[in-house]
Amino acid sequence: MKLKRICSAVLAGLFLVPALALPALAAEEAPAQPQTLEEKALQAVTLAAQYGGADSVRYALWEDGEITLQGGYGVYSRTEDRALTEDILYGIGSVSKTYTAAAVLLLAEEGKLELEAPVTDYLPEFTMADPRYRDITVRMLLDHSSGLMGDNTRSAFLFDDQDTAAADDLLERLSTQRLKADPGAYSVYCNDGFTLAELVVEAVSGMDFMDYVRQAILEPAGLTNTYAPGDDFDTSRLARTYASAEDDRALPQDTVGIVATGGLYATAADLASFGGLLCGTELLSQDSLDLMNTDWAA
What does the alpha-carbon distance between residue 167 and residue 79 come to, in Å, rounded to a whole number? Predict the structure, then answer.
C-alpha cells in the first residue's frame, strides 16, 4: 500500500469538543452497515462523539494532495443558531507540537541550527540549577528526552486571555530547577521541551514563533485557517465548549499561552492538509521526515 494511501486514511481531522453526552444507539436495533465513504465517515464521527461525550465533531480526509471529503456531526453551540460549517475552528492542543517540530527541522535544513547541538548554543541565557542541562540538545526537546521536569505549564491554560507569561517566564523558572534524568536517557512526555523549542525557533529565525510558522509553513501550503491566540481572526468561528453536560453556558475562548506546545487553532481541513504535507516532501526533505519518524528512545 502506498504511503499516500496510508496517509489518506490516517489524516482525517477529528475534533472532539467535550460536553454533551449523546444518546447511545439502541441495542435492539442494529444500524444498517455504511456503504459509501461518506457513510463510513459519518458513522465513525458519530461513534466518536458518543464515546467522547462531544458536542461537535468536524472531520476532513486528505488524499493525493487535496481534501477529498469533509463533514461534521453535532452542533456548533447548544444555544446559538449557527451551522457547523467547514470554517469552524477548534483548538488542536498538542498536535501543535508537530508544527513546532516541522519549524525546527526547516531551520536545520536551512543550515541555521544543528539538531545535535546543545540548546545553549542558541539560548545562551538558558541555565538550570543542574549542570547536566548543558547536555540537552535541540533534538532532545523534540523527542521528549531532555530530562526536564516538564511541569511549567500551570499558568498557560487560560480563558479569553492571550497572556504569554508561561512562555516568557520559562527560562527564569528553569534557572532554579533540576533535571529528573540525564539528557537523552529516556523519553517522557515533556511540554517544557517544546516551549524551549519555541524560543529556539525565535532566536534562530529572528522572528516571532507564529510569524515564522506562518511564513515557512502555512502560507506556502495555502493553510489560511490556522491561528494562534494572539492572531487577528474571528474568534466566533471557534466551536463552543462547555464545562459539563448539565450546564449550557458556553465557556470563554480557551487560550493556551504556550503556542508551540499546544496553542494552535485550525479547521479540520487545514489540519488534515498539514498532515498531508508530512506524507511527502513538499514541506520537509525525506531525510527530515526519516528523522521525524525515528524512534530515538529505542
Answer: 35
Provide the b/e sequence for 201-223 (b: ≥16 CB within 10 Å).
Answer: bbbbbeeebbebbbebbbeebeb
**Cell 541555565, residue located:** 127
Task: Name, in order, each residue with C-beta under 8 angstroms of 136's C-beta and a sequence gap of 6 or more.
Answer: 118, 119, 120, 146, 147, 148, 183
Helix (H/G/I), strand (E/B), else coil: 58: strand
pLDDT for residue 27 is more than 60: no
Q: How far, in Å, CA of 282 to CA of 34, rounded?
A: 34
Q: Identity (one letter) of the amino acid at 181?
A: A
Ramachandran assignment for 159, one of left (phi > 0), alpha (psi -120 to 50 degrees), beta (any other): beta
Q: Which residues contact 169 (CB under 8 A, 6 or more apart)?
A: none
Tens of pLDDT, residue by residue over 202-212, are 999 999 999 99
Q: Are 112 and 205 in contact (CB under 8 A)?
A: yes
Q: What is the pLDDT of residues 34-49, one digit of tens each?
A: 789 999 998 999 898 8
Q: Cβ(183)–Cβ(196) under 8 Å?
A: no
End-to-end CA distance of the chain: give it in Å, rounded.
26
Angstrom distance (rounded) from CA 233 to CA 240: 16
C-alpha grid cell, residue 78: 447548544
Query: 22 and 78 in contact (C-beta within 8 Å)?
Result: no
**Proportion of the chain in helix, strand, coil states, percent, rounded to 5:** 40, 10, 50
